[in-house]
Write a structure and sequence with these properties.
- The complex is a heterodimer of chains A (113) and B (117).
- With 113 residues, chain A is an all-beta fold.
- Chain A contains no helices and eleven strands.
- The relative contact order of chain A is 0.33.
- In chain B, strand 4 and strand 5 form a beta hairpin.
- Classes of the chains: A mainly beta (113), B mainly beta (117).
């Protein structure tokens, strides 16, 4: 019940296209859903996060869509650029569990010029 | 803001020796820090949660006597890999949860690549 399932495992998108990564969770007690971007040999960087009281959050080219009833959330990267090529991780946490993040398996995104 | 540093960034040691990795929150106070381990092409695996001034909480399967964690101040946590063996070679990443904004937000350090020969 603590799992977060992420798909696809890898994704190839043309420059200018939309990259979409999906995550599904089981534990309805989760109340915080961040997305992290990680470049090879670096630590993850917080990209954008959402709470279950909103269905969508947008920051620049990055949008999280959240479907509470389906227990799913997704990351959309608009106008994808080669510089966006990285591994993306979704995660979920419960506030009263000390903020412990449960990570998805990761998606390796490659944006072709 | 919200910068977390780790030192060293890369370390190579001989089997049987101990290695200490430092994690610092540079511009905020972190009551809670987390230590992760990451193998190539895999997700982050939480090893332990460290709260300032108290003992760390280890995840199931993580040997607390092998991975010693100390969180002596609100800006510093250390991970010591004792009697390291080649199978301990991995990418170790810390994160810190800030108190200055959402307490859910975790900021990650740049990671430490440990190679045990």
């Amino acid at each position: 019940q603590q799992q977060v399932k992420q798909s696809p495992q890898s994704l190839i998108v043309q420059k200018g296209g939309i990259s979409i990564i999906n995550c599904a969770y089981e534990n309805t007690a989760f109340d915080y859903f961040p997305w992290y971007q990680q470049f090879p040999g670096k630590g993850p960087a917080l990209l954008i996060a959402i709470r279950p009281d909103v269905s969508e959050k947008k920051e620049g080219r990055f949008t999280i869509s959240f479907n509470k009833s389906a227990k799913q959330f997704s990351l959309h990267i608009m106008d994808s650029q080669p510089g966006d090529s990285a591994t993306y991780f979704c995660a979920a946490s419960r506030y009263n569990q000390g903020g412990k993040l449960i990570f998805g398996q990761g998606t390796e995104l490659s944006v072709k010029p | 803001g919200a910068v977390v540093s780790q030192h060293p960034s890369r370390v190579i040691c001989k089997s049987g020796t101990s290695v200490k990795i430092e994690c610092r929150s540079l511009d905020f106070q972190a009551t809670t820090m987390f230590w992760y381990r990451q193998f190539p092409k895999q997700s982050l695996m939480l090893m332990a949660t460290s709260n300032e001034g108290s003992k760390a909480t280890y995840e199931q399967g993580v040997e607390k006597d092998k991975f010693l964690i100390n969180h002596a101040s609100l800006t510093l946590s250390t991970l010591t890999v004792t009697s390291a063996h080649p199978e301990d070679s991995s990418f170790y990443i810390c994160s810190a949860r800030g108190t200055h904004e959402s307490t859910d937000t975790q900021y990650f350090g740049p990671g430490t690549r440990l190679t045990v020969l």
